[in-house]
Amino acid sequence: MDKDVSQELLDVVDENDQIVDVKTRGEIHKLGLMHRASHILVFNSQGKLFLQKRSMNKDENPGLWDTSAAGHVDSGEDYLACAVRELDEELGISGEVSLILLFRIPASSQTGMEHCAIYACQFDGPLTLQAEEIDEGLWVSPEMMSQRVKDSDPGLTEGAKLIWKLYCGRYGTSSWIDTLSE
Fold first, then answer.
1. How crowded is residue 86: how many other Cβ atoms within 10 Å of its Cβ?
2. Range of the domain at 87
3. Average pLDDT along the chain
4. What is the pTM of this model?
């Protein structure tokens, strides 16, 4: 699949996440404009978090470990639809998965100028990794992820570090599904 992602149309948004324009992904990144992304944290029933290692062919953060799945919100798409699409495209998860909106992060240099919606789900089935996007995957305990973030592991994306810090600040690292149902 030789798709030129730099030509994908994305909504340009302002500091309040309101749409102000539509431009190509390439233009948005070149000009440092605010746009939108969804990230999904996939946990299994043992409480482990799935991390993806970004393909060496990616234009941003190649070869770094990132959240379970993530992607830009296409023009005209909402955050939830993007999250559902990315789970299917990147991990082969579709159908009976319930996504829970955990929190949002405003656009900043730390997020690559992306307003981010962070979702979580539980999944124990087999994963089908999208070869164009992901080189490998790994299930890690919340404690291991916290240690990697605390150590400022250079193998993790800055976005994944930020998301995990915010996640732990809100929910801790104990049984995530119990915390969300309170």
1. 25
2. 7-181
3. 92
4. 0.92
